[in-house]
């Protein structure tokens, strides 16, 4: 009987050991000539270690013999890019290295907390824009506006949006070139900001003109969702920079709108002044205003506005992750989500290298 019991114990022990080994997730490695970790570029060979959907380590790592490793040669490994202004998140973005998007305008019925469907970027959303009756964008179809009539209604709507999954609150302060559009008042914006902050959310403002920017500044918004482009004063841009209010440029989309006569021709000039004042310019495309893709034109315009190539990369990775409140997302650091991609060559020499993706991993899984 004792031998039988010992045999059973031995069998159970072997099975438990096998199960334990099966439960251990083996690390995988990606190696290339260069690695941009979200803040700085490492040259001379570097790797990323990934385990279970998270970054374990990145840098000049010693790769164990027999480890699973993808060697990319003359390439640069980067954190997945973050597009801070979209209205669509098609699968093509993921295949081009954009692993996280922020939807800054969708119907309340489709709003949900941050999520990531298989084959698609991670999506963070704001829901509809808070505005006033008759204000922008109440005349658009499908309806992307949530009009309010008072500061009390505005604060209550913020609460409803957050309960529905909003990770950020977006308000509309577009006045039109002739100031004919009604918009939120300063007290209403202040009420929205106060309630959003109470619920640990930031407020981003759709602003295109100087009068709307004045309301945004007086109301205390946390971010501006476009580079304002009409009737903006140097003092307003200097105030944005001094208050550390970042601007998501959408410069490419603004240029397209200008070509259609919408009056956004000063966007790049204002971006140059804003950057010269020390302002933080972040990456966003306003897709589908521009074709859904990693927008090389936008990145190039950010460089023309005064950012170095490294600062452009930071604006689409680590700084964007902090803006979402999701750091270390946007970095290749221990504990960060395993959003990794690689491109041929060195994008700090020529940003167009970002248009040649070799490898994409999202949330620890290889994207084919």
Briefly say what this structure is.
31% of the residues lie in helices and 23% in strands. With 368 residues, the chain is an alpha/beta fold.
Task: Provide an overview of this structure.
This protein is of the alpha/beta class. It folds into 2 domains: 86 residues, Urease, subunit C, domain 1; 243 residues, Metal-dependent hydrolases (TIM Barrel). It contains 11 helices and 19 strands. Strands 1, 2, 3, 4, 5, 17, 18 and 19 form an 8-stranded mixed beta sheet that branches. It has a 4-stranded mixed beta sheet with strand order 6-7-9-8. Strands 12-13-14 form a 3-stranded parallel beta sheet. A hairpin with a 5-residue loop joins strand 8 and strand 9. Helix 3 packs parallel to helix 4, helix 4 packs across helix 5 and helix 6 packs across helix 8. The longest helix has 22 residues. It starts with a helix and ends with a strand.
CATH architecture descriptor name of the largest domain: Alpha-Beta Barrel
Which CATH first-tier class of the largest domain would you pick? Alpha Beta
Q: What is the domain tally?
A: 2
CATH homologous superfamily classification of the largest domain = Metal-dependent hydrolases
Number of helical regions: 11
Set down the secondary structure blueprint:
Elements: H1 2-23, E1 28-36, E2 41-51, E3 54-59, E4 68-71, E5 75-79, E6 81-86, H2 91-95, E7 98-103, E8 115-116, E9 122-125, E10 129-131, E11 145-147, H3 151-163, E12 169-172, H4 186-198, E13 203-206, H5 210-219, E14 223-224, H6 234-242, E15 247-248, H7 251-259, H8 267-276, E16 281-282, H9 296-304, H10 309-315, H11 318-323, E17 340-344, E18 357-362, E19 365-366
Parallel strand pairs: 1-4, 1-5, 6-7, 7-9, 10-11, 12-13, 13-14, 15-16
Antiparallel strand pairs: 1-2, 2-3, 5-17, 8-9, 17-18, 18-19
